[in-house]
Amino acid sequence: MDFPGERRINSYAVPRMGGIVIYISALISIIGFFNDLTELRFFILGSLSLLLVGIFDDIKDVSYQKKFAIQFVAALFLLIYLSGTYKTVNFLGIAIPSPLDKIILMIFIVGVINAINLYDGMDGLVTGFSLLISFVTFCFGWQMNNQFLMILSASLIGSLIGFLKFNLFPARIFLGDSGSLTLGFFLITTVLISSTNPATKNIDLSFSVILLAVPVIDTLRVMAGRILNLKNPFLPDLSHVHHIILSTNMSYIGTLIILQSFSVIFTAIALFYLFKSGITWVLLFVLFSITLLYIKKVIFMYRKFRKYIQVKKFSLKYPIFITFFTLIQNKDSKWN
Question: Domain-by-domain residue ranges, the chain?
Fold first, then answer.
């Protein structure tokens, strides 16, 4: 059970470990529809290791050192599985030499797994985000005629839609670490396969970064902030983006809509970047990344602007209000 606490948004005890259902659904689909399970043995081992450490963490907290160790093992299993599907890796058109590419891929895999885990702080947030990414990767699987990618993405879509019914605010069940860790593993698997050009066997890592931008940017910002404040970067606090937006008196649904809207925007930018190329999409990515980083200021600026527009409209309708509003806004006025 997830009990209310200092860092918890829920005000009542909620069962967790809902991710077990999603994992079993995905595994049954893979076993039932994929022809060569031997080919997937390292993928299954990696996902299973994360599921087990997630279950133990949901029942009794596991130290972040042990979780990190298991995550690197899972990342290694995934790299072994992917080794036959790609030859080169590039970022923003720059080729990454071997073996540096494998080191960067492993760090990126562990980073995304943790980012999804840390992003799971609101009802329906990670579930909705994962549903969006799974739909995109399913389309890539269809286009590439990649059987495994289609099966895994479709199974995630089905199980996430079913789970979302019980995970939306107010949630009746949480993903737990068993869910967020395995979801992170599934998502990074589907995204890396989608980022691989079947003809050139090249992974475009920049596409993966843009597509998963919201949880990745949030995690990098939180970690950097903790380090600058001389805190342990792996110990939890209230500095995540959903905490920041909620602190502006934004409603729960409003916060969810803002974050999912950013996810949709970054998804669109990632697709345009992949199919249209050009510096425009990179600049758009940077622009919306900065907006997300300073989301609190953006919300306050929007509210001030909205209030200003409302005052202007009212003033035009009632001219006498203009004089009064000018007086109270003037710092040198006797009214102040």
Answer: 19-219
137 and 232 Cβ atoms separated by less than 8 Å = no
Alpha-helix residue ranges (DSSP H) falling in the chain: 19-33, 41-59, 64-82, 100-119, 125-144, 147-167, 176-194, 205-211, 213-228, 241-246, 252-276, 279-293, 295-317, 320-329
Q: Per the omega criterion (within 30 degrees of 0), is the bond before 170 cis?
A: yes
- Answer for the pair 194, 156: CB distance below 8 angstroms, yes or no: no
CA 56/CA 335 separation, integer angstroms: 63
Q: Give residue-wise pLDDT tens across range 62-74.
A: 888 999 999 999 9
What is the C-alpha to C-alpha distance for residues 58 and 208, in angstroms, rounded to an integer?
29
Contact criterion met (CB below 8 Å) for 149 and 140? yes
Is 32 strand, coil or helix? helix
Q: If you search the block for the tokens 């918890």, which residue do you land on?
A: 8
d(CA 263, CA 242): 13
Tokens, residue 308: 């200003």
The one-character DSSP state at 171 is P
- The CA distance from 270 to 51, in Å, is 29
Adjacent-strand bridge partners of 197 = 202
At 282-312, the pLDDT tens digits run 999 999 999 999 999 999 988 888 777 766 6
pLDDT at 9: 58
What strands, in cross-sheet order, belong to the sheet with 88-91?
Answer: 94-96, 88-91, 202-204, 196-197
Confidence of residue 322 (pLDDT cuts 50, 70, 90): low
